[in-house]
Amino acid sequence: MKIIKRTIQEGIEARLFKGKVIIIYGARQVGKTTLIKEIQKKYPDVSIYFNCDEPDIREAFTDVTSTEIKNFIGTKRLVFLDEAQRVENIGLSLKIMADTFPEVQVVATGSSSFELSNKINEPLTGRKYEFHLYPFSINELKEFYSWPEILRILETRILLGMYPEIVQTGQDEVRALLKNITSSYLYKDVFQYQGIKNPDVLEKLLRLLALQVGNEVSYNELAGSLGIDKKTVSSYIRILEKAFVVFRLGPFSRNLRKELTKLRKIYFYDTGIRNTLINNFNNFDLRQDVGALWENFIISERLKFNSNRGRDVNIYFWRTHQQQEIDYIEEKDGRLSGFEFKWKKGPFKAPKLFIDSYPESSVELVTKENFKDFLS
Fold this sequence. Notes:
The protein is α/β, with parallel strands linked by helices.
């Protein structure tokens, strides 16, 4: 299997041995282990790798003293802790290592930010660098594919997604593998979380969200469909966000009376996972949801682009009660940039109310013909 270099690797390596713990978040199977082992190859004699899914490793780093840690890591100066959220009180152990052994660089990964971040935020205040690893991005695939080749495989990547193993697996096996990732890996940390009392409801919620991609989502309507209360829906969606399954866009408004202010949109980090949930891998010419699928895919790619390059922006959608809309808005340094997504190029005119209300803003159409510019 070929190794595709991840964009964040350079940033991580630039922060090694700067006196802080490095934390890498990302869903299971997005390539965190491959990434840190690629970094480890550059430090073969002074590094050591621990898989915290293994019980003896978890025990070794749980409630330990600095002496016990030193006996365990020996003279190694670069320590990798994979799936660190599995270690009880890992935040205190990382704090001890950061404070007692400043010459030792610790790199910890976690597949569920609700567990790892909760355990480390207070102990590691001011002592950590954080990175997020997502499924492959289009820009990362450009290392192995020319742009014409990427255009040829674009529909396939939208249908099957960008998980590393999915990208590098043959067509005959990929659907079974996608279902395995969805059922065996993606939910693993979610279902272990103490707030999940009804896994069946969570699976039904995910299917409903998959069917509503591109539309505003009402928590009240979801609660009614699932037979649970709105608070539980909100809690489950928050957990799914922290497990890197879905992300939200809120409505942009500066209190114009015509603008929507309460509903939100929910997208999947990976469209292959979304299509697996609704069991629809039909080609584009047989689908009714091409527009929504393209919208989800390209917004997810933009999210990866921003994160991989450290671009800090606020993201929204915009819609009025009269159904004027803009699919995606970024706000940076007070400037608004709006984008409308359509699979095929066609007539487009920015909503007059938006342009009149926010005259310093810009609005562009992004299609399969010009999306390269949107991601560069």
